[in-house]
Design goal:
203 residues, alpha+beta, 7 helices, globular
């Protein structure tokens, strides 16, 4: 398998999952501005949308983080990263993945767009983001260590990465103490440490 990634982007969730599953894989970095891979390939020939992640599994190139994560987890059910298909717990996992993709991730997007925002627009963007972050905070407020409860899952690989974007953006994570503890907990996992080192995010 080969993962096409950008350092610290949502592709990091796939990278972490590959490590959690102890799979053999290659990685190739993508320049999201030029749409070129590190080897000089036009990335749009791999993923026509031009964004990461893309995971070449041999038979196909998979895109979209929730789909990739569920595919990987389902190939290795013994690792326990996703509940069995058809169960209520699986529907809850899918709800978490979809929330992260369509609400939380999307709320961060304007802050990475590079476009100038007037004060009113910036306030609206931040209010939307804070509302979505508060949903995660409220989910974790019952003391559960992970989104699905006691067990780490693919929902955590994605949510962890997106919540961690508060750091580069200078957003004080301390306003959400349960999320801060959640990030601090997950970042200690060997799979996370290895992926972040491979992407040059930590030494």
């Amino acid at each position: 398998m080969k993962l096409y990634y950008a350092a610290g982007a949502c592709s990091l969730a796939t990278h972490i999952t590959l490590n959690e599953l102890e799979l053999d894989y290659q990685i190739e970095q993508v320049d999201l501005k030029t749409k070129k891979t590190a080897s000089g390939t036009d990335y749009k020939t791999i993923n026509s949308q031009g964004y990461v992640p893309a995971l070449d599994v041999g038979k196909a190139v998979l895109t979209e983080t929730p789909a990739i994560l569920q595919y990987l987890a389902d190939q290795h059910p013994d690792k326990g990263l996703a509940p069995a298909p058809g169960t209520i717990e699986r529907a809850q996992l899918q709800a978490s993945l979809n929330f992260t993709a369509s609400e939380l991730h999307k709320a961060f997007a304007p802050l990475f767009s590079g476009t100038d925002m007037d004060a009113a627009t910036k306030e609206a963007v931040m209010n939307r983001l804070y509302l979505r972050m508060q949903h995660v905070e409220d989910t974790l407020a019952d003391g559960r260590p992970y989104l699905m409860g006691d067990d780490f899952s693919i929902a955590d690989t994605y949510c962890f990465v997106v919540c961690s974007w508060t750091g580069p953006l200078g957003i004080d994570i301390a306003r959400w103490p349960h999320i801060k503890a959640y990030i601090d907990r997950i970042i200690q996992r060997p799979s996370v440490q290895a992926a972040m080192k491979e992407e040059g995010l930590i030494s």
